[in-house]
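ok so for the tutorial part 2 we go from a plain amino acid sequence to predicted C-alpha cells. step 1 is just haveing the sequence, like this:
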Amino acid sequence: MTKAKFKTTSNKAAQSQFQAEFAKGSFVFTEGELGTHMYIIQEGKVEILQRLGGEDRQAAVLEKGDFFGEMAVLEDLPRNASARTLADTRLLQIDSSTFDQMLKDNPEIGVRMMRKLSRRLRETDTMLREIMGTDESTPSPEIPAPEAAVAASTSETLRHEESGMKFPLSSGSETMIGRKDPVTGIFPDIDLSPIDTQRSISRRHAKIYRRGDTLYLSEEIGTMNGTFVNANRLVKGVPAEIKAGDEVRCGVIPLVLEVGG
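step 2 — the prediction. this is what the C-alpha cells look like for a chain of 261 residues:
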C-alpha cells in the first residue's frame, strides 16, 4: 500500500483535518483494518471494493465531493470494505473531533449519510426476503435504479438556455432534480451534473410534483444553495406552482419550464 503524504490545512479551527495525497492504485484503507477517519474527495477518483468469494469486487466509484469511510467516526468497528484510488487523488481526512462541527457547517452531509444507511437497510431487507423466498419488494420511488433514471418522453421540459440542453420531466407523478450520487445510490430523474460546473446543486435538490394538469416545485431537505421560481426563493416544505415560461433556478443553474412543442 502506497503511503500517503499528509499536510495540515491552513484552517486553525480544524486542526484535526489533513490533506492526504495518494498516487493512482494506492489503497486508502483495506477491509478488516481499524479506522478512525472518514474522507472527502477533493481531487481524483476512488473505488470501493468488497471481498466476495475470495476476490475484491467493485461496489462503487466515487468522485470529487463524495465521501467514504464515515462509519469509522460513528462506531469502533473494522472497515467493511477497501478503498483504492483510480487516479492520483487528494483527500480531506477528518477524524471524530471535527466531525460534529462539519455536520453543523454542512448539514447536507448528515442527510446524505442517513440516506446511505437507509439504502443499506432497504437492501438488507430485500436480501433477507429473497433468501426466505418472500420477496415482495418493489422499486423504491425515492431511490430509483440507474436504468429507471431515464425519464420517459413528455411534453414538459426544463431548458438550460446557455447550453441549449433540455431535460424532460418524468411521466410519473414526481420528478427528482439533482446530481447522481453513487455513494447513496441516488440517480435523479433530471441529473444536472453536466451543466453544474460549480457543484451548487445538491444530490436531491428539488422535486416537481404533478397533480392533475398542475405542476408544483418543492425543495428537498438538506439542500444547501436554494431553489427559486422567478427569483423568489422557495420556503422548504412549501410547494410552489410553476407554469410554462417560469424560470426555475437550482443553486446557480437557471432553467425555463417549457410545455408542449
